[in-house]
């Protein structure tokens, strides 16, 4: 089961209802948004950003040849 939740005031609350029994134990795997984890990690000029966007959108030449 995949569930979205919001963390507020040190409590993780599911966004919707869960199909669980009262007191049932579960295991969680927390994944953060990739943008939040990587924001500001590297500084790039506008030209480099445009090149990355183009390669991502259409696939870079090195991947097309494989």
Question: Can you tag this structure with a few keywords?
Answer:
single chain; 66 residues; alpha+beta; two-stranded antiparallel sheet; 3 helices; 33% helix
Question: What would you note in describing this structure?
Answer:
- This protein has 66 residues and is of the alpha+beta class.
- It has a domain at 42-66.
- Helix content is 33%, strand content 12%.
- The chain contains three helices and two strands; from the N terminus they run ββααα.
- Strands 1-2 form a two-stranded antiparallel ribbon.
- A hairpin with a 2-residue loop joins β1 and β2.
- It comes from Methanothrix soehngenii (strain ATCC 5969 / DSM 3671 / JCM 10134 / NBRC 103675 / OCM 69 / GP-6) (Methanosaeta concilii).
- This is Antitoxin.
- Antitoxin component of a type II toxin-antitoxin (TA) system.
- Belongs to the UPF0165 family.
Can I get a quick summary?
Helices cover 33% and strands 12% of the residues. The chain has 66 residues and is α+β, with helices and mostly antiparallel strands.
């Amino acid at each position: 089961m995949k569930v979205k939740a919001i963390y507020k005031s040190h409590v993780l609350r599911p966004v919707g209802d869960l199909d669980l029994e009262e007191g049932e134990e579960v295991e969680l795997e927390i994944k953060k948004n990739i943008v939040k984890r990587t924001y500001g990690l590297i500084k790039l000029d506008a030209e480099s950003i445009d090149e990355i966007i183009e390669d991502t959108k259409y696939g870079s030449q090195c991947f097309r040849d494989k």
